[in-house]
């Protein structure tokens, strides 16, 4: 999917919501447990209930890997069930020496046909560029993450003239490997106070913003400070949507939670409409 197609979908749906599919077998509603593939059945109903309200789905691969081969099957069926015009993110946080990254790229872009993958920048250019060689596919590079540990390395001040943080150097260097048409950046909603510094370096790139909902980040702040001329935001919410209810009405409640976020997003998108 191209950047223009993504923006078009955002305008059409009045939404830049990404629904996380971090499906924990221990949190499934009881009535699904005797279906053939409870994880897929859960995802199927969540997707059917939210597909008109969001522009992306992001399964976090850990939740599927943890189940072994059965989990990979549930993931693959889930991916096939997502409508073609919705952007898909393999939240796998990969990155390794070049020839290994090549294989990760093959796994997530060819064997499974995700549109994008989250990648850690720590091993540098040759660990990231193999993911950039496939037309129409995207890298989503970790820049300033939502968790408390982002303080440990990403916020380290560098002593090279201008005061800047390590995450800013990551943005500057990685922007020379790719373009806003094949690289996005993860910036946590809990880090909204730094998003203007992010935008100063990557004004045109899409940002994947996790951390609203369960982690307490503000949709309003990140939208006000982070939006660019083509929206430029995909805001993820997972637990607050998919676990809005643990009962038989889980899909209906997920839809209500997604609708609430989408309606707030529609207000922030008014300037484009
Ligand atoms: O790459 C991510 O998606 C990610 C980066 C980050 O900085 N923080 C973060 O929470 N995430 C992911 O986003 C999702 C957040 O889920 P909720 O907190 O339930 O909305 C999880 O899948 C996390 O792994």
UniProtKB/TrEMBL annotation:
GO annotation, biological process: 'de novo' pyrimidine nucleobase biosynthetic process; 'de novo' UMP biosynthetic process
EC primary class: lyase
MF-aspect GO terms: orotidine-5'-phosphate decarboxylase activity
InterPro entries attached to this UniProt entry: Aldolase_TIM, OMPdecase_type-2, OMPdeCOase_dom, RibuloseP-bd_barrel
Domain Orotidine 5'-phosphate decarboxylase: 16-254
Stored SMART domains: OMPdecase
HAMAP family, alphabetized: OMPdecase_type2
Family: Belongs to the OMP decarboxylase family. Type 2 subfamily.
UniProt-recorded name of the protein: Orotidine 5'-phosphate decarboxylase
Gene: pyrF
């Amino acid at each position: 999917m191209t950047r223009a197609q993504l923006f078009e979908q955002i305008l059409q749906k009045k939404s830049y919501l990404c629904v996380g599919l971090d499906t924990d077998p221990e949190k499934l509603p009881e009535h699904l447990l005797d279906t053939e593939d409870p994880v897929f059945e859960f995802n199927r109903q969540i997707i059917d209930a939210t597909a008109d309200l969001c522009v992306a789905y992001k399964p976090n691969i850990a939740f599927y890997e943890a189940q072994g081969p059965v989990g990979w099957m549930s993931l693959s069926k889930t991916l096939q069930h997502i409508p073609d015009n919705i952007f898909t993110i393999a939240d796998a946080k990969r990155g390794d020496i070049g020839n290994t990254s090549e294989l990760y790229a093959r796994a997530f872009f060819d064997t499974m046909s995700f549109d994008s993958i989250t990648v850690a920048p720590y091993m540098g250019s040759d660990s990231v560029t193999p993911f950039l060689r496939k037309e129409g596919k995207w890298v989503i590079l970790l820049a300033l993450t939502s968790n408390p540990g982002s303080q440990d390395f990403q916020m380290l001040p560098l002593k090279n003239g201008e005061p800047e943080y390590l995450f800013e150097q990551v943005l500057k260097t990685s922007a020379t490997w790719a373009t806003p048409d094949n690289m996005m950046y993860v910036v946590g909603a809990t880090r909204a106070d730094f998003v203007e510094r992010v935008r100063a370096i990557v004004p045109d790139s899409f940002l994947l913003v996790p951390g609203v909902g369960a982690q307490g980040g503000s949709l309003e702040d990140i939208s006000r400070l982070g939006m660019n001329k083509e929206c430029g935001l995909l805001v993820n919410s997972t637990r607050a949507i998919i676990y809005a209810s643990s009962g038989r009405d889980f899909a209906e409640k997920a839809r209500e939670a997604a609708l609430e976020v989408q309606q707030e997003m529609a207000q922030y998108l008014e300037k484009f409409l």
